[in-house]
Write a structure and sequence with these properties.
The protein is of the alpha+beta class. Helices cover 16% and strands 45% of the residues. The radius of gyration is 20 Å and the shape is globular.
């Protein structure tokens, strides 16, 4: 009788955990990603790391950046977890070589449930860039 009771309690606990929605933690987003920009052909590296304020530090370093006259630069932003599939990219600044940083519109990274690929719509021409995770570090 005791084993049946313990089995029923264990089964109920497992079912309750399976039914509880889970929001992705920092480790699910943290890492280094690589993407190819279809507009300018650049290879982009995207870094997402947790920051001390509970948000994320986001850096994008492309081989060519069409937002810069010199085509040399990088993007710095802050990330805020919206849900397990969405990371808001906020306070976005483009740092162009030889120029002052300039603000660009915020965006949203969306993660595909099946593949883990991140997608973001670009602010300038509304195309979508995709990023594949290449490292968890």
């Amino acid at each position: 009788m005791t084993f049946r009771y313990l089995g029923a309690v264990a089964t109920a606990a497992i079912l309750a955990m399976a039914a509880t929605p889970v929001i992705a933690d920092d480790d699910d987003w943290t890492g280094l990603y690589q993407g190819l920009d279809a507009f300018d052909g650049s290879v982009d590296y995207l870094s997402i790391v947790p920051s001390s304020n509970g948000k994320f530090d986001i850096r994008v370093v492309p081989s060519v950046i069409s937002l810069c006259e010199s085509q040399v630069g990088w993007i710095v932003a802050e990330g805020r977890l919206v849900d397990d599939k969405t990371l808001a990219r906020e306070n976005v600044k483009v740092h162009c070589s030889g120029a002052e940083p300039k603000s660009v519109p915020d965006g949203v990274y969306r993660r595909d449930e099946q593949t883990g690929i991140l997608a973001i719509e670009t602010p300038d021409d509304k195309r979508t860039n995709y990023y594949h995770k290449i490292s968890n570090d």
